[in-house]
Amino acid sequence: MESEDPKKIQEMKTDLNLLLECLKYQMDNPLSQKEALVTIHSICQQNSDAGVYFREIGGLMFVKNLARSSAHSMVKEAALYTLGTVAEKNVYCQQTLCTSELFEDLIWFLSNNDSNTNLKRMSVYVILVLVSNNRTGQTLVRETGCFKILSELFRAVLSKYELNLSDKNVFQNYQLWSSVCGTLCVCVNNPQNDENQRLCCSLFPHANDWLKNCMLPEIIRPLCSFIGLTLANNTHVQKYFISVGGLDVLCQVLVQLESDSHKTLSSAKLAVVVTKTVDACIADNSTFGEVLAKYHIVSKLLALLLHKNLDSAEKFSIILTLGHCTETCEKNQYDLFKNNGLPLMIQALTESQNEELNKAATFVLCNCKKITEKLSLSLRGENEAEQLEDINMKEKNIEEYWKKAKDILHRIEQLEREENEEKTQREKYKDNVSSMKINVQNTLKHLHTDSIGPKAEDKDTSQSRKLQSYKSHGFMSKAYTKDNQTKTLFKSANPVNACYRESGQSKTLYKANPSCNQNLQKETTEKKDSVSQSSDRVFKHPNLIVKNRKQQLPVTDPFTLCSDIINKEVVNFLSADNCPQIFKYRCSGCIAVGKSLNSRNFSKLLHSCPYQCDRHKVIVEAEDRYKSELRKSLIYNKKILLTPRKRQLLSNECTTSGGIKERKNRKNFTEEEVNYIFNGVKKMGNHWNAILWSFPFQQGRKSVDLAQKYHKLTKRPKFVAP
Predict the structure, then answer these.
(1) Topology at the third CATH level for domain 685-715
(2) Is the peptide bond before 191 cis (omega within 30 degrees of 0)?
(3) What is the pLDDT of residues 73-85, one digit of tens each?
(4) Under 8 Å between Cβ of 704 and 688
(5) Domain segments of the chain as ranges
(6) Where would one find coiled-coil regions in this protein (predicted)?
């Protein structure tokens, strides 16, 4: 007995003796017996030693017999209530009352149709006290058939899913059903009883129906406690619960409660209770986590974890459930990655000082380490597959290139054959042309002496000099003309015949061969620039020919013109055989130079070249147009320069030009953007950068703008989140 004042102990003993005598001598007065029993209950509840003394004086057995034999319901209820209080406060009293006779009496009270709801409720309460933390009581519940009566009450007490707890009768039935749920929980747990857990499996379908059809907290909490304790540490029961669809029902309830948790705090608290039940179902067998992937439970748990009004114990339950979900299921691990679960786990580690919560967060991170390794290996495999595909594509491209190369080689061989045939034709014409040259010179001399006189003799001497110059510079004339032009000259008719036929008419001579004028211009330019400009003859010079066309055409007779043309053609025929290699000269931008070229010296090189090809001429003209447009824009904006300047000069100009910055254009937030903000806060919390990157806001939005807008909206009176 406790060390208390002996006077008080003696008073307590005196009171219990008097009350027991009152019970014995007031058998015909149920109200007096009820009052005496209530007084004994209050004394034993305040002092646990009072129950021991009451047992020693035989009061406990007398109350037990009174509950069995009394004809009044109120006396039975008070007697059972007193027995339950004494057994709850003292273990010795619990062991004394834990007999099969008492369990049989309680079964009779529960199964009797004449027993009212309160009497049944008091009977269930006594069973709860006798079984709690007592393996002997758990065994007697099963062996005496009391468990069967409790199961029937669990199914039959509440008949309708729509409960009106304001009704007195409905509320009394609900209290009885809730007491039955609590008693069943004690029968299977603390200590854990595998046989009783298996017996409770028969109640799972009925519990699932109630979870589907009734979302009241008064129903969900007792059912989740019963299911969680029945599933705890029992793989066989867990498999059966999943086979009857229990885990799917829990997931559906959790999804519904999580969606309502942002509106009411009670839904968030109730969602945590369901989360604990889900964790009890998958804790011993993590393969069951694949069922959760169908309902995206991981994302729902992460959203629930962001609720501000949850305490550390509730957050620990959520994180532990996440750890069991992601232990072996890769889908859940991927959902954790996709919904920013890793930052939340790291945040929980850094901010929380609860060791259990930190261990749970570390457990989740270890599970994620496995999936990161697998993802890295899969990425490597994908890269290797892509490389193999690239190699196959390259091989196909190489085969196509080989085909094209063979076609080109075949064309080259055809061109070589044609060129060899042309060479043979040139050799045939060589003898004829050489004899023709001598005859033409002799005849021209006679014609000039007859028509012009002494001036014609000067012309002959100039023609002979010209012929020698053609022999010396035959290589240049051949380089100037293209290969296709030489071929057409060989195939065309001999202009000598035309000159002899039309010797008296200069106009018809020009019509017969329009290329005579061009050849004559080339001859005159070669006379003037024979020595001083020999190096410039490598490039084309079409501009000089066009400008000096009228000046370089002397007024002479047709015979002189024909002689010049014929001499040039003859020299070209002779030089073709002496110089088999024909060089094609281009502008300075096309030929290879010794120094390395870049964007600056190449432009200077093109501008300094007087002879440009068509391609580089277009490039130079485009560059000049671009620079001219920039110069025009310089007039309107003095800050635009063609050449870069130092940053300090530009910064000085910007500061001295007024230093007034343009104000940012204001863009009002649309309703869609406001919804984006609240959805982002709902999923990711106050991580504004993550919200800004996750939703399509207007261009120019910053994370600071989102935070300010959110705080303004939440500070408004009567604000309701969308």
Answers:
(1) Arc Repressor Mutant, subunit A (1.10.10)
(2) yes
(3) 999 999 999 999 9
(4) yes
(5) 1-97, 108-244, 250-375, 685-715
(6) 398-432
